[in-house]
């Protein structure tokens, strides 16, 4: 009973922490650490919520979730030892359904993203050109400003529009390219993939949507920080403002606007008036907490009782 | 000889530039690389058709190929995705910054002027 209760508590703590973290601002002072915390919260929430249901259901075996499931599969005499079998059976079905559902939607959404990226890559190979001024970058002839990174398993591409070349100064262009190179280097696409998948799977969940938005912004901030190793803050900031205000098309999708403005302004303010980075001991504490959190759920799946 | 990807690109460029459907032989004549075997051109045309970028129609014993969509249509498809305007079916690209519109762009323009005056 203890494992089930602890796992349920853990799932609740993760959900509450995620909810608090969506509005936290200290994360902007240590984006990388915050991203790690988000990842561990996500994994732990999934394992803890399914684990709590399964641990309760499999409690009569007294072997923990993992070995309990194995015992269940080998004997299939479930529910014969306890009086509350209906409740436990319901818990078992709910736990397995939640686990299978989470895995299935993550895989399906991941596959959808990979398909869309593949199509994008094929089209790029037919349309994009190389530009001597920006070696290694794919250029698409399009008047509006656009710069992004198309992630690939083997090779990621940095793509910019023709319009970007005329919009930005040489310094600003360097800053943008350094930012995109940081995305490629730190594999931010892989960081974002599970959060994108989860948002696609549970589009009605406000916490999931906010979590995705928070992580996307943190990734941009992490890339900004990394870009500063190769360029100055000011061109990066002016590039951001120029980019955001160069209205791409008459009316972008309604509600996106407001958050886009505050996101751009948050990044610009960080660059122009850098806050003190989160102290090393605080970052270490969060790092330690994340590792502990990530390890806790699998351990609780193993312990009997 | 050029790589297959490079060749697909040149062939698409040729067909986009022409207004009429072309046969493999006609395409082959227009490619700069004269050493190209006619079968290579046919292979690439076939690949592009299977991927859905070309449509083909029978003309006597030969096939005539033409682009399934204009170059601009494909550019638009790429850029809509780049600007995060395709809804949930997008490729989850990491974009440098999102463009905003109207009064919101004004906030950014003002900040830009202030920053440049510093």
Please give the structural blueprint:
The complex is a heterodimer of chains A (305) and B (118).
Chain A: H1 2-22, H2 31-57, H3 64-75, H4 85-127, E1 129-131, E2 134-140, E3 147-150, E4 157-161, H5 162-167, H6 170-185, H7 188-201, H8 206-227, H9 233-245, H10 256-272, H11 280-302
Parallel strand pairs in A: 2-4
Antiparallel strand pairs in A: 1-2, 3-4
Helix pairs in contact in A: 1-2, 1-8, 2-4, 2-8, 2-11, 4-7, 6-8, 6-9, 7-8, 9-10
Chain B: H1 4-17, E1 22-23, H2 24-30, H3 38-50, E2 54-59, E3 62-67, H4 71-82, E4 94-95, H5 102-117
Antiparallel strand pairs in B: 1-3, 2-3
Shape of chain A: elongated
Largest β sheet strand count, sense and barrel closure of chain B: 3 strands, antiparallel
Order the strands across the largest sheet of chain A as they lie in space: 1-2-4-3
CATH superfamily of the largest domain in chain B: Winged helix-like DNA-binding domain superfamily/Winged helix DNA-binding domain
The total beta strand count of chain B reads: 4
Spatial arrangement of strands, main beta sheet of chain B = 1-3-2
- Poorly predicted runs of chain A: 250-257
- Residue share in β-strands of chain A: 5-15%
Average pLDDT taken over every residue of chain A: 87
CATH topology of the largest domain in chain B: Arc Repressor Mutant, subunit A
**Structural class of the helix and strand makeup of chain A?**
alpha+beta
Family (chain A): Belongs to the peptidase M48 family.
Protein name (chain A): Integral membrane protein
Cofactor (chain A): Zn(2+)
Domain Peptidase M48 (chain A): 115-195
Give a structural overview.
Chain A has 305 residues and is α+β, with helices and mostly antiparallel strands. Chain A contains eleven helices and four strands; from the N terminus they run ααααββββααααααα. Chain A folds into two domains: 1-94 and 278-305, no CATH class; 128-248 and 256-274, no CATH class. Chain A has helices spanning 2-22, 31-57, 64-75, 85-127, 162-167, 170-185, 188-201, 206-227, 233-245, 256-272, 280-302; strands at 129-131, 134-140, 147-150, 157-161. The longest helix of chain A is centred in the middle third of the chain and has 43 residues, at 85-127. Chain A starts with a helix and ends with a helix. Chain B is of the alpha+beta class. In chain B, 53% of the residues lie in helices and 14% in strands. Chain B has a three-stranded antiparallel sheet with strand order 1-3-2. In chain B, a hairpin with a 2-residue loop joins β2 and β3 (62-67). The radius of gyration of chain B is 21 Å and the shape is elongated. The mean pLDDT of chain B is 84. The interface between A and B is large, with 68 and 43 residues. β3 of chain A pairs antiparallel with β4 (94-95) of chain B, so a sheet runs across the interface.
